[in-house]
Amino acid sequence: MDFLLSPSLMLSPSLMISLPALGRGLVYTLELAAVCLVASLLLGLVFGVMRYAGGRMLHALAIAYVEVFRNTPVLVQILWFFFALPILVNFEISAFIAAALGLSLNSGAFSAEIFRAGMQAVPKGQWEAANALGMSRARVMFRIVLPQAVRNMIPAFTNRWIELFKLTSLASVIAYPELVYSAQQISNSYFNPVEVFTLVAAIFIAIVIPASYLLRRLEARLRRSAP
Amino acid sequence: MHYQWDFSVISDNAGLLFWGLGNTLLLTLIAILIGTPLGLAVALLRLSSHRWLSWPATVYVEVFRATPALVQLYWLYFALPRLTGLRLGGFEAAAIALSILSSAFLSEVFRGGIAAIGKGQWDAARGIGLSYPRMLRTIILPQAVRRMLPVFLERYIELLKTSTIAATVSFGDLLFVAQDISYRTYRTLEIFSAIAVMFFLVILLCSQLTRLIEHRLARSGEFTAR
Lengths: 227, 226
Prior knowledge:
Chain B: Pfam families: BPD_transp_1. By secondary structure, chain A is mainly alpha-helical. Chain A has helices at about 1-5, 5-10, 20-55, 55-70, 75-90, 95-120, 125-130, 135-165, 180-190, 195-225.
């Protein structure tokens, strides 16, 4: 450990020393993104269906959820879950939980709107035909409407997931040790903000651009296979 | 545990909270005023047939759309001074970062809007001998902007929400003011809930206005509502 503390190395903008820590940060970023992606899809599905096909109460509840989480900044939501919620529920909330709650609920609200719009684009005749076959409402929803709707939703979800992945950077504000927080820590100890923040930007680019290219290809393939 | 709510902390600090809200709106407005023309310029470069003009513009858009706003802000705030010796304050760094970010997103909107204008409009404008700037100003942009307006307004609202990252570099926006008050009074729950409500009301007002404009345009036949 001694060599790490020698002044020459501490002042040198050595990126090699920072790489393992950044790697760990990347793992935390991916972990948070994966959890939020799954959670926001489920939330979006539940609230989207509630708004599309729910009774009056469920419909109003879904609207309230979507409006509250879409019309407030996600950073405020994350900070609220981290600093304010523990006062109400009287137990400690970790940075991971607070960030996951804020990002998932926020992204879930946007996803609910994507689900709703996708389902509304399915022609009414599909419902009538399925009803005529004697299918239950739930069955029509999950066997007829959603499978057709999903195809139309993929472009919107592509954008949402990329947005979500970038938004995980906000978890650094409550000291969740993802990429950006790791970068801050490293640049504080080694005084190499130029190298570290440039590398972090490059890591995001290296993930986001290929990911959006692949998702767009998937999109095109699904469109071609559409009946 | 029974929590004793105390909302007096909000009325006591109302002036400070509104000052913070003013700063948030000011920052957003500046980013809109710089980001929109910059976005148009980038879009025109991208549409250019010269490869050495369109290529850098494409890289610009891809880089700034693929990186988180917070990373851009930190780069400007922490890395740029080391590289150039130029020290930016929280406000300057946030204003530049948000302007660049919005220009990258808006350029895509401009590009789509301009590309959607029929080829006949270009041919006709060229046919009556208009210069390129004149063509853009009088024929192409008025049609494109009217069609793209709802998307623009949506992006502006998104920008207002993103502007909260300025609090992380100590710019005194609404979020920063809230953090400051909660450190002094320990009334975190009340303060953070209050600013959430303030943001909610402001953004709801903006999105209702957007919807109103959309309906106007839909009725005038310039734009079909989604």
